[in-house]
């Protein structure tokens, strides 16, 4: 039995690996995990390892009481491969994120599950 695309994606994250899909028919990258290419409808998307680098497209800070864990951020990240994903930027205060900030992905474990988060990219 073959795993669904979403199940495969989460299993890879749980093992510490971040993958996105690539359509060999139209040469587009695909995220979120799917069974068919949303660009051309082809089946058989191939799993690839993205560079993990990207740019913050949108960013907001969510306010919570300290006893609920405090403030955190939510960001839309445009990966260099051309797909957009929702995540958070760690390693900075929640209000310090900026649209246009360069970031790098990493897989962390949260409540026993793999999760992609981003860190500010090192400046050259």
TrEMBL record:
ChsH2 C-terminal OB-fold domain span: 47-106
Regions that span the bilayer: none
Native organism: Comamonas aquatica
SUPFAM superfamilies in the record: Nucleic acid-binding proteins
Domain of life: Bacteria
Lineage: Bacteria, Pseudomonadati, Pseudomonadota, Betaproteobacteria, Burkholderiales
Ranges of residues in domain ChsH2 rubredoxin-like zinc ribbon: 13-45
The name this protein goes by in its record: OB-fold domain-containing protein
Matches recorded under Gene3D superfamilies: 6.10.30.10
């Amino acid at each position: 039995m073959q795993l669904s695309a979403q199940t495969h994606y989460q299993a890879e994250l749980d093992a510490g690996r971040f993958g996105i899909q690539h359509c060999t028919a139209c040469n587009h990258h695909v995220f979120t995990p799917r069974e068919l290419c949303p660009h051309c409808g082809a089946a058989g998307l191939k799993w690839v390892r993205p560079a993990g680098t990207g740019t913050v497209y949108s960013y907001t800070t969510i306010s919570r009481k300290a006893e609920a864990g405090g403030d955190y951020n939510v960001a839309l990240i445009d990966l260099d491969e051309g797909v957009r994903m929702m995540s958070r930027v760690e390693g900075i205060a929640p209000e310090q994120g900026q649209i246009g900030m360069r970031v790098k992905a990493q897989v962390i474990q949260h409540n026993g599950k793999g999760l992609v988060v981003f860190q500010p990219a090192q400046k050259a």
